[in-house]
User: Fold this.
Amino acid sequence: MSVEIRRVQSKKEKKSFIKFAWKVYRKDSELKKYWVPPVVADYMKTLDKEKYPLYDHADIALFTAWKNGRIAGTIAAVENRRHNEIHKDKTGFWGFFECINDQDVANALFDSASQWLRAKGLDAMRGPVSPSMNDQCGMLVKGFDSSPVFLMLYNPPYYNNLVTNAGHKIGQELLAWYIDQDLIDIKRLSRIAQHVMKREQLSIRTINMKDFDNEAAKIRDIYNKSWEKNWGFVPMTDKEFDFMAKSMKQVAKEHFIYFVEDKEGRPIGFSLTLPDMNIPLKHVNGNPFTPWGLLKFWWYGRNISAFRTIVMGVLPEYRNKGIDSILNAQISEYGGKHGLYSSEMSWVLKSNEAMSKLAKVIGGIPYKEYVIYEKEL
Assistant:
């Protein structure tokens, strides 16, 4: 039977678009073991063109595929005008891809996304990017035997074949580094950090949560300047960053957000590490806001001992001076004293040799790999 594609329009259809993932992961015992259901309310906000600030300079179209009268797959197509202005190209994006193991269904989804992007005047597509490079991105291709950490994705192994068989090629490879707290030579890291701080006349401090808005503005400034030349990077607008910061504040911990400052007290680098909230989220079936969901979320989130370092940023004039060693030493020291058993550094471009070298120095192991695919339209 042929595949039917439907454009998602209503709020009810949008919720069905999100909830389709349960049909993919719940029916397979191996996938069910590791998959963390997305928070439905968060995804609804992310897909809301009236609420999510990305859509001030972007557009999105959602499609569902139907076969034998049942929903069989989902995909989003995204036009990010700010990306194309900055990178001087005509690239569109696809994301929120979920699909049964059926190439015809996958092809129909990609064809629909391609047609929508071509109609926007774009000549290439890249993904999965859901819905921007500042959100969740990458298709898992290695490391299926453990759950994803907070804000990272998980998918069935067969997705790679569905994408490549539809004509998509590898654009970039991403790594997630696993860091075992017991394997870190904290004393050595601390000596290096102290040497760098003395040489460069630097100091380090934690974020001031009582002055969160101003502190977040400092992070935004460093982040946009330090990542400016990175592949695919698009600086966040003030509105986008404020939206992100507000959501992060709910789970942020003071002793895992650090600033490195120069002798005048000017922030020149930062690191953002968050507790792995996927540990409690795994048990609430996508809804932590019901009474039962709140209770489970509290119970499983009481003693989270795993964390994710999401991003580090250092101003361009301070690169290659060992600032990252100061940040890593501080995170490791705190973790060692407070019983934190592991962390993940993600994501890191596989081609970024400097970051990979840093991860190895602190005992990191590249245990998950992701791919962002590209295809000409």
Observations:
- The first helix runs from residue 11 to 25.
- The two ends are 27 Å apart (CA to CA).
- The longest strand covers residues 169-180.
- The CA atoms of residues 209 and 219 lie 13 Å apart.
